[in-house]
Structures are given as C-alpha cells and as structure tokens.
Amino acid sequence: MSTTTPASTAADRRKVVAATIIGTTIEWYDFFIYAFAANLVFAPLFFSPAGESMAMILSLLSIGLSFLFRPLGAFLAGHFGDKIGRRPMLVLTLLLMGGATTLVGVLPTYASVGVIAPVVLMLLRILQGISAGGEWGGAVLMSVEHAPTGKRGRFGMSPQLGVPIGMIVASGILALMRAIAPGEEFLSWGWRVPFLLSFVLIIVGYVVRRTVDESPVFREIREHQEQQSAPIRQLFARHGLLVVLAALLFAGNNALGYMTTGGFIQGLASRPVDEGGYGFDPVGVQLAILLSAAVWLVSTAVGGWISDVIGRKRTYMIGWVLLFAAAIPLFELVKLGVGGIALGASFMAVGLGLTYGPQAAWYAEMFPASIRYSGVSISYAIGAIVGGAFANVIAQALLQAFGTTWAIVPYLVLMVLVAVAATAGLKDRRDIPLDIDFERSGGWSSWRPDTARDRQG
C-alpha cells in the first residue's frame, strides 16, 4: 500500500468539493440566522419579562448554549463516523440542523404561549449545537481524505468556504427582509422568513450529499476491519494534549470571528440608541457585514492554498499578526457608521481567513486514521466553546460594566495570544500519509517531513 491516501478520481473530488461547500453553506446559514436574530429580535420576543438589559443577555446566552452541546454532537458523530463512515453523519447532521432551524421559524413568542416559547427556542438551539458539533468534522474528512498529497490545504478549504458563504447568504437575506419588512413588521413576521427558507435549502443539501462516495480512507479502514471499538477513549488516552492544543488553536479565531458571525457588531450597530446601540441603518449594517464575509471567503481560499506552499503553521502565524492588529481599532471603526463597519470587519476577515482556510488540512493531519473523525470533531467543538460560546456575552458584559467598547479589546487580544501559543506548540505535519496502513506500520508517531518540506513549513 502506498503511503498516500487511496486514490480518488478527479470526478470524485469535484463532487466532494461541491457537496461539502453546499452542505456546509446550508448548515452555517442556519447557524448564523439564529445568531443574527438573537442579537436583533429574540430579546423582546422571547425574553422580555426579564427586563431590557437581562433579556439581551439571555438572548445572547442562547447563542452560547448551543456551543455547550457541540461536544455531544462531536462525540456522537466522531464515534459513529469512525465506526460506520463519514457520509452517513454528514447527511444526518444536515437534516438535524435544517429541521431545528425551520421549527424556529414557526415558533410562537412569549406573548402567545408564555414560558414555553423560550424553553422550546433553547431546545431547538441545542439541536443546532449538536448538529454543528458533528457536521464540520465529517465535511473536513470527506474533503481532505479525498485530496491528493500536496493539495490538502486547497481541498480542505472547501468546507471552510461554506462558512463565509453561509454568512453571505444569511446577511443578504436578512438585509432583504429588513428592507421589505422594516421596523415593527420585521419584529412581527419578517424575521421568520429566513428560518423558513431553511426547509428548501436542506432538500437541496440532502440530495447533493447523498450522491457523494464514502471517504477512501474510511473505505480502507472498513476493508481491513480496523474500526476502533472505542475511538474516543483511544483519542484521549493517546492524544489528549494534542486535542487541547488543537482546541486552543481554533479558540482565537472563534472569539474574534463571533464579533460578526455571532451578530454582536450587527446588534450593537443597528439597535436604537435608547436600547444601547448606535442606531445605524440596519440594512446598511447587514450589507457591510456581507462585504466582510466576501473578504473572509477570499482570504479563506488564499489561506488554504498558501498553506500547501509555506506550511500550515507559517500561514497561521501571519493570520494571528493580522488579527492582533485588527482587534485594536475594530470598535472605533464600528462607531464611524456603515463604512467603518465594512472596513473594520473586512480587515479582521483577512486574518480570520488565514487562520481558518488551513484548519481542515492541519486538523486532519494531526490525528491517525482510525480516530481521526473523533479527534477533528472534538478538538473543533472544544475550541468553539472556549473561543466562541460566550464571546458575545463576554463582550456585552464588558461593555455594560465599563461603558466603553475599549473594554472588549483586551479580551480579544488575549484570545489571539492564547492561540499563538497553541500554534507554536503544534507540529506542522503537512503531507503526512493519512491511510490506515501508515498508522498500522507505526509510522504516525515517528513521521517527519523531508528536509526540503521541513525548511518550507
């Protein structure tokens, strides 16, 4: 057996790239729609009895609630993804996310059914968290394990691209609905439309994902009957420290990213002044974020591509420098209006892309084949909790406690520095063989890149 991933045809790879981009776009469209709505309308609709300030905190906490259940999704999808395959988990997580999102769109408000409304809302958000925790790892492995050696960064960026595309679609549809149904109409019914559209999107995603072949690495694992009976136990017994470092690697990206992907900036900028916001045109704010998502899309593609040339670690370090620089003036730019929001969020998006594009390839190269789904999914889920789960709540609490957005900046800078330390502690294992034979030979623990590759990465 070759020390490369088992062969896939060019047609297989194109199909996988299309399926991972489309499916991940739909998954994260659903996720972002909830986060945006939580910053814009859920406080008065579902949490109003708590009072204005606490209602906003509870609404933002409902975003973070889903992150606490991502590890459960990661554990379940990782366990079964390493035992029965990558593809079944991708289909299941897509249906779970889309179903939960659609149900939010028909959910009665507190004024209609009382406390049942926020309880059911949070239960649906939990289902979204379980889905998100399992989906990403499967999409990553389907794309990276089909990729030829030397091009994993380029192929691995395909599920990563689905995240900014999902944000573009979510921002665009919200901007459209806020134009069609402004003010009280948006609060009354306009916010529901983006959630209901998810039903159409999941049908498309389901059809596309069902047509994709199973990962060649998993086909080889199944052929050799090398599935682990307890992959998660094996993961923590053999690679516990690696899981921690990989999680912290993602935490810095997630903390800064959730200033926009979690809707914090959109809510702060577009809420009326008497509700603690800046009162900017909500349509303009959404369009500014849409522009930054487009920048994020491009920089993610660039990040995946250059990581195949200069290495995963170097690409990340460049990204961290840019994110550090972007965090300092971010909120001062937001205060300038729609143009400042577009500039600040777009500057940050460049660093986000360079620390997101290579992530799929680097994560896949960290873990051996038999426990790879578990390792990738659980590291991602823990990193999302540490970085993104309560980023919005922390930012809002700091703003309310100190009365200035400058209080948020040290928190963002600290998260970048933590991620830099994790990056420094990880090995760049670019082009390590991913197949089960290489793991069985004992080469995984002793593998080193050749001299030329080592100088590059």
TrEMBL record:
It comes from the Bacteria. Residues 16-430 form the Major facilitator superfamily (MFS) profile domain. CDD domains: MFS_ShiA_like. Keywords: Cell membrane, Membrane, Transmembrane, Transmembrane helix, Transport. It is found in: Cell membrane. PROSITE patterns: MFS (PS50850), SUGAR_TRANSPORT_1 (PS00216). It is a multi-pass membrane protein. The chain crosses the membrane at residues 54-77, 89-110, 116-141, 161-181, 193-212, 241-265, 285-306, 315-331, 337-357, 378-399, 405-426. This is MFS transporter.
